[in-house]
Structure formats: structure tokens, C-alpha cells
Amino acid sequence: MKFSINGLISIMFIASVAMFSGCMGGAGESVSTTTPQESTEVVAKAAEQSVAAEPVAVPEPESVAQSTPAEEESIFEPNLRLDKEMFHPPFEWGDCTVCHTNSDPEGSGDHATILDTPDLCYQCHDKDAKEGKKFIHGPVAAGACTACHNPHKSPNKRLLVASNINQLCTMCHQAKGDFLHETANIHPPVKDQCTNCHDPHTEDYKFQLRADGKKDLCVMCHVDKKERIENSKYKHGAIDRPNGCQECHDPHGTGQPRMLKADSVMDMCLKCHNQTLTTDEDGYKLLNIKKHLDENPDWHGPIQWGDCAMCHNPHGSDNLRMLKKPFPKSFYSNFDENNYICFECHDSQKIMAEQTVEDTNFRNGTSNMHYVHVNKKKGRTCRACHDFHGTKDYPHHLRKKTQFGKISFPIRYIETPTGGSCAPACHARRYYDRENPVVNTK
Ligand code: HEC
Ligand code: HEC
Ligand code: HEC
Ligand code: HEC
Ligand code: HEC
Ligand code: HEC
Ligand code: HEC
Ligand code: HEC
Ligand code: HEC
Ligand code: HEC
Ligand code: HEC
Questions:
Q1: Is residue 176 within 6 Å of ligand 3 at its C-beta?
Q2: I need a surface site. Which of 21, 141, 198, 334 has the fewest CB within 10 A?
Q3: Ligand 4 atom closest to the CA of 1, numbered from 1
């Protein structure tokens, strides 16, 4: 965690008006190492500097025009501001000795308290609620309650020393404050308030998160994703890796859309798909896509755009290979228009029109060769001839070799200006020509 000088200055500033209670053990040091003794010293020093100040966190705009809090004020909406100042009940009761050794701390100038914080506060507040869980926030562990709360009164909810949660947190977490201002695509709940996920005092999960931050926290809000990752027929092994959702997403933001931890969806995918992975469902050895794309530079459109997620759902799906829409599983399939993800982008007439002069170039005169091959009972699926990721040897994403069961054979495609021919194992070389239809005898 980074602490900047600016952060400290702004804390000191707020502290001097709101009474600083030893939140920082020293510049750049972790507060949690501050002993109560040290913290009292800091408190004393801070108090010296602030005798005259009213314990109010709102600076007059004119007098502090250059200061960080005033700027922050304009960036963060003051949504914790109350209509009128709120008094902490024991302060309002008027018996100052509940907390102070002197019954007139104001007049006497003796501000000593009967106990140090946090014990002072735990006279009335439940200690367990503030530090009873596994992980305790640094300043809470250090007893620096008054770094965030004014013990007397405040114009903000919960006696807070800032009028917005994110302003409060970024007083100390300056690096996160800079990040909020500089980064595009911040995760909406982060922009809203840090406490959507972090408890300001104590929690059972690391970083005082409200649930395990790798996955459980995410699906608390993203219920649809919980449903998907648990119930999809084809699940994505990525999500079962140790970092869960964070394998691909940063919880706060990265500057990339969807808070992705890579410059594009494709770069994200290829971080893992740069090797032969094995599916959980059927033990099938998946193509090393990175190697395949490196060796086959004629990439299919959506891959040129860097977006594998146009076809695959990274969170899993009920379709083969987590495709967003169905695609037949095998070499042959009874043709059904609804079974082809391809028609999300390509016109289905390409396969549906028996005769055509425009729907496809794969025709012999007006006879649609796509129709002939694909559109029938036990028709060939697109994979018989095309590769959906990248190719090299032939145009139109025609693959060099086709996989038929366990054997693979070359299709030996030759293109001509008005048609082409191929000679796979299925049949002898056959020709198609758009202008002068060919009669294939073999
Ligand atoms: C809930 C506990 C609590 C009560 C009640 C309380 N104080 Fe305080 N007060 C504090 C704490 C904590 C500090 C900070 C101590 C420090 O900085 O060493 C403080 C500091 C002060 C200071 C010096 C810092 C400043 O600039 O304000 C004054 C003056 C003061 N209190 C006045 C009063 C008066 C007057 C009352 C009664 C009307 C009162 N307090 C009641 C907790 C309390
Ligand atoms: C003498 C008892 C007493 C002491 C000591 C005390 N409080 Fe309180 N505090 C109360 C009462 C009563 C309330 C109002 C009821 C409630 O919200 O629990 C309250 C409320 C609060 C609230 C919530 C205000 C809201 O908007 O709900 C905060 C924050 C708080 N106290 C912080 C502190 C801190 C920090 C200290 C130590 C510096 C402290 N209190 C010491 C009695 C005390
Ligand atoms: C890092 C800032 C921070 C520190 C340090 C801190 N609090 Fe809080 N506290 C908050 C925030 C933010 C809230 C409001 C939480 C909400 O409403 O969701 C809050 C709420 C409270 C409340 C009222 C609501 C509740 O949860 O009961 C009390 C009482 C309270 N704090 C007491 C304390 C005491 C006592 C300490 C010191 C042991 C302390 N706080 C230290 C930030 C802090
Ligand atoms: C008064 C200064 C201060 C304020 C205000 C503050 N923090 Fe902290 N925070 C710290 C310190 C100090 C640590 C401990 C750093 C360490 O141990 O390295 C810490 C630790 C954390 C951590 C754990 C970081 C880690 O690397 O372990 C998180 C998460 C966090 N704070 C979130 C928040 C949130 C959310 C808020 C606003 C509700 C907030 N903080 C307000 C001082 C502050
Ligand atoms: C959507 C939930 C969420 C919100 C909202 C959120 N965080 Fe976090 N934060 C996380 C998760 C999850 C981690 C743990 C990251 C990890 O496992 O490495 C984390 C870690 C941290 C850490 C420690 C690691 C680091 O990144 O430095 C700090 C500090 C922190 N958050 C501060 C903040 C602050 C300040 C805010 C508000 C501006 C905030 N967080 C808002 C989810 C959130
Ligand atoms: C393998 C990488 C990867 C993992 C792991 C992953 N995601 Fe995603 N996520 C993506 C990509 C890529 C997108 C963009 C998808 C798109 O454009 O269709 C995305 C989009 C999202 C979106 C916004 C768009 C939408 O589909 O709603 C949310 C919300 C989301 N992911 C949540 C999660 C959650 C929650 C987890 C953990 C259960 C998780 N993701 C795990 C890669 C991943
Ligand atoms: C407190 C609720 C909450 C939590 C917790 C939460 N999110 Fe979100 N998330 C939202 C909201 C609200 C949006 C914006 C609406 C939407 O896209 O669903 C969002 C949007 C997203 C997006 C899309 C952002 C974009 O650029 O469109 C992704 C990706 C995402 N969340 C991932 C995660 C991951 C990963 C986690 C866990 C580390 C997580 N969320 C935890 C509430 C939450
Ligand atoms: C963190 C590593 C990781 C990342 C990042 C990743 N994957 Fe995977 N992926 C795996 C693992 C491991 C498997 C094999 C286990 C399984 O899901 O069956 C897999 C399997 C697959 C499968 C086959 C699923 C099946 O069940 O047949 C597809 C398709 C796939 N990933 C696409 C993608 C896409 C698209 C992206 C980018 C959005 C991506 N992967 C990002 C790790 C990852
Ligand atoms: C145009 C849609 C489309 C795009 C874009 C796409 N894929 Fe695929 N992908 C498919 C189809 C269809 C299959 C099923 C292939 C088959 O079974 O013959 C598949 C299969 C896979 C497989 C399993 C391969 C195997 O061994 O059978 C992986 C892994 C995969 N894709 C990852 C990716 C990655 C990574 C990207 C981005 C670089 C990506 N896909 C982009 C359509 C697409
Ligand atoms: C997300 C949109 C999208 C999806 C889905 C899609 N494609 Fe494409 N396809 C394109 C784009 C864009 C082009 C043009 C760029 C290029 O040549 O790759 C293209 C081009 C092609 C070409 C080469 C055209 C030529 O003349 O060079 C073939 C063949 C092809 N796609 C087959 C398929 C098959 C088979 C599927 C289904 C598995 C499919 N496409 C799914 C967008 C898509
Ligand atoms: C028997 C092999 C074969 C099958 C099966 C096949 N195609 Fe083609 N496809 C071709 C040939 C050959 C071309 C090149 C035609 C030309 O330009 O001369 C082609 C061209 C294309 C084109 C480029 C535009 C065009 O039509 O001229 C697209 C897009 C396309 N095919 C999509 C598909 C889709 C989607 C499927 C599955 C539904 C599929 N193909 C099945 C052989 C096939």
C-alpha cells in the first residue's frame, strides 16, 4: 500500500480541524505498528497545532482554496452531508468528563482524555463490532477512531470527517484517489463508495472485504454470473483457477473496458490459451490458440478485432466450447438454421438459398454449393472446410486439412478468378464456376 506525502498533508489538515488522534504512526509507516503510547504523543502534537480550531471538518472554501480537501470536495459529491450538524450524544449531554479528565476542557485548556482511543470509545461502543473479526483495518487496529470520526459533532453522517466515503478513504489511500481520477472504466460500485465491498472497521475476509474477493464477493452482486458459472453445461476452467474472477478482472478497474487485466479480450484469452489445455467435460485436448494464430496469420474478422468474446462466453455456456450461440458438435449434422452461431454475422441465405446469384461465391452457375454441402440431413458442418480462428494456405478461411473422426486429410483447394476446385478424400477433384457452370463427372 502506498502512502504519499500529499495524502499525509490532507490527513493532517483534516486532522487539525477534526482533532487528530494519532492515525499515522509516521510518514510512510504502517499504522498498525503504532503503540498506544506513540499514538498519544502524535495526538498531543496534533492537538498543539489545533487548539484554536473548531472541531468541524468543513473548511471555508476561500481560506483553503488551494488545499486538497476543497478540491476533493468538488470531485466527490458531498452525499453524506446532513441538513444540520449532528452532535455525538455524550457531547450533547454536556458532561465532558465522560471522556475528559477536566470538566471544562474548553476553558481550562486541558484536553486530556480519561482513556486513549479506542478504549475511550469502547466504554460505550461494542469493541467486537469494530475489531472482532479476522481482519482489522490499519487505523482501527491502531485505535485511531478520530482519524475518521469527530468525537463531538459533525455536519456529516456517522460523525465522519469527510462528506463522502471515497473522499474519506482516499485521504489516506492517495494512490487509489489518483487512480479514481485518472482511470477510465472504473468499476461502478468503486466509483459509488469503497464501503460497498470493504468494511471500514473489521471483516472476516482479507482487505476487510465483505466476502472472499476472488469470487464470492463478485457473485453477491453479479447473481446472473453465479447462476451461469454454476449451471452452465460447458464451464470455463479459468474461473476455477486460484484467482477466480480476478484471473481476468481487476476489482477496481484497469482503464480497459470490463476492467480486464489485458489490452484486449484476445490478449486476455491468450495468457492461458498459449498452451494445450484439457477440457474438464471430456478430457479433450484443446488447440493451442496462440500457436495456431501465430502460424495462421489470416485471422477471422472478430479475431482481427481482438474480440474472442464475440463468439465465446468467457463465463461458460450451454453450447459447445462455451459458444454464445449453438454450433454443431461434429463433422456431419442435420441442418438447422438455429444451430449455427455463424448466422449472427453472416446471412443464412448463404446456406439456405438453393439457387442464387448473390448470396455466395461458392456456387456453380446459380447452384449454391454451400446449400449442396451443408443444407441437408447429415449435411457437412462449416468445420469441414473452414477454420474459425485463422488460416494461411487458402483464402476464405478454408482450412488446409480437415478432421474426419480420427483421420485428417488435405482438401487441396485451388482458386480461379470465377470459381475453384478441391480434391479432398470425400471425392475426386471437383470444380465450380460462377460464370460457366461445370459438369463434374466424377
Ligand atoms: C465521546 C468522548 C468525548 C466527549 C464526550 C467530549 N470529548 Fe472533547 N475530545 C474527545 C477526544 C477523543 C478528543 C481528542 C483528544 C486529543 O486530541 O487528545 C477531544 C478533544 C477536545 C478538545 C481539544 C481539541 C479541539 O480542538 O477541540 C476540546 C476543546 C474538547 N475536546 C472539548 C470538549 C468539551 C467542551 C466537551 C463537553 C461538552 C467534550 N470535549 C466532550 C472526546 C470527547
Ligand atoms: C459515553 C458513551 C459514549 C462514548 C464514550 C462514545 N460514544 Fe459514540 N455514541 C454514543 C451514543 C449513545 C451514540 C448514539 C447511539 C448509537 O448510534 O449507538 C453514539 C454514536 C456514535 C456514532 C454514530 C453516529 C451515527 O450517526 O449513528 C459514532 C460514529 C460514534 N458514536 C463514534 C464514537 C467514537 C469514535 C468514540 C470515541 C472517541 C465514541 N463514539 C465514544 C455513546 C458514546
Ligand atoms: C477508516 C475510517 C474509520 C475508522 C478509523 C473508524 N471508523 Fe467507524 N465508521 C467509518 C465509516 C465509513 C462508518 C460508516 C459505515 C456505514 O454507515 O456504512 C463508520 C461507522 C461507525 C459507527 C456507526 C455505525 C456502526 O457500524 O456501528 C460507529 C459507532 C463507529 N464507526 C465507531 C468507530 C470506532 C469506535 C472506531 C475506532 C475503534 C472507528 N469507528 C474507526 C469509518 C471509520
Ligand atoms: C486515516 C487513514 C486511513 C483512512 C481514512 C483509510 N485507511 Fe485504509 N488503511 C490505512 C492504513 C494505515 C492501512 C494499513 C496499511 C498496511 O498495513 O500496510 C490501511 C489498510 C487498508 C486496506 C488493506 C490494504 C492492504 O494492503 O492490506 C484496505 C482494503 C483499506 N485500507 C481500505 C480503506 C477504505 C475502504 C477506507 C475508507 C472507508 C479506508 N481504507 C480509509 C489508513 C487509512
Ligand atoms: C467491488 C468491490 C470493491 C470496491 C467497491 C472497492 N474495492 Fe478495494 N478491493 C476489492 C477486492 C476484491 C480487493 C482484493 C484484491 C486482491 O485480491 O488482490 C481489494 C483490495 C483493495 C486494497 C488492497 C490492494 C490494493 O489494490 O491496493 C485497497 C487499498 C483497496 N482495495 C482500497 C479501496 C478503495 C480506497 C476503494 C474505494 C475507492 C475500494 N477499494 C473499493 C474490492 C473492492
Ligand atoms: C477468462 C476470463 C474471465 C473470467 C475468469 C471472468 N470474466 Fe467476466 N468477462 C470476461 C470478458 C472477456 C468479458 C467481456 C465479455 C463480452 O464482451 O461479452 C467479461 C464481462 C463481464 C461482465 C460484464 C458483461 C456481462 O457479461 O455482464 C461482468 C459483470 C463479469 N464479466 C463478471 C465476472 C465475474 C463475476 C466473474 C467471476 C465469477 C468473471 N467475470 C470471470 C472475462 C472473464
Ligand atoms: C456491490 C455490488 C458489486 C460487487 C460486489 C461487484 N460488482 Fe461488478 N458491477 C456492479 C455494478 C452495479 C456494475 C454496473 C452494472 C453492470 O454492468 O452490471 C458492475 C459492473 C461490472 C463489470 C462490467 C464493467 C464494465 O466495464 O462494463 C464487471 C466486469 C464486473 N462488474 C466485475 C466484477 C467482479 C470481477 C467483481 C468481484 C471482484 C465484482 N464485479 C463485484 C456491482 C458489483
Ligand atoms: C486463467 C486462464 C484462462 C484464461 C484467461 C482463459 N481461459 Fe479458456 N480455458 C482455460 C482452461 C484451464 C480451460 C480448460 C478447462 C475447461 O474449461 O474445460 C479452458 C477452456 C476453454 C475453452 C473450451 C471449453 C470447453 O469446455 O470445451 C474455450 C472455448 C476457451 N477456454 C475460451 C477462452 C476464451 C475465449 C478466453 C478469453 C475470453 C479464455 N478462454 C481465457 C483457462 C483460461
Ligand atoms: C467467429 C467465432 C469465433 C471466434 C471469434 C473465436 N472462436 Fe474459438 N471457436 C469457435 C468455434 C465455432 C469453435 C468450435 C470449433 C470446432 O469444434 O471445430 C471454437 C473453438 C475454440 C476452442 C477449442 C478448440 C479445439 O481444440 O477444438 C478454443 C480453445 C477457442 N475456440 C478459443 C478461442 C480464442 C482464444 C479466441 C480468440 C483468439 C476465439 N476462440 C475466437 C468460434 C470462434
Ligand atoms: C461476430 C461476427 C462473426 C461471426 C459470429 C462469424 N463470422 Fe465469419 N466473418 C466475420 C467477418 C467480420 C468477416 C470478414 C473478415 C474476414 O475475412 O475474416 C468474416 C469472414 C468469414 C469468412 C471468409 C470470407 C472471405 O470471403 O474471405 C468465412 C469463411 C467465415 N467468416 C466463416 C464463418 C463461420 C463458418 C462462422 C461460424 C462458425 C463465422 N464465420 C462466424 C464475422 C463473423
Ligand atoms: C464443402 C466446403 C464448405 C463448407 C461445408 C462450407 N463452406 Fe463456406 N465456403 C467454401 C468455399 C470453397 C468458399 C469460397 C467460395 C469462393 O469465393 O469461391 C466459401 C466461402 C464462404 C464465405 C465467404 C463468402 C461467400 O459465401 O462466398 C463464408 C462467409 C462462408 N463460406 C461461410 C460458411 C458457413 C457459415 C458454413 C457453415 C454453415 C460454410 N461456409 C460451410 C466452402 C465451404
A1: no
A2: 334
A3: 26
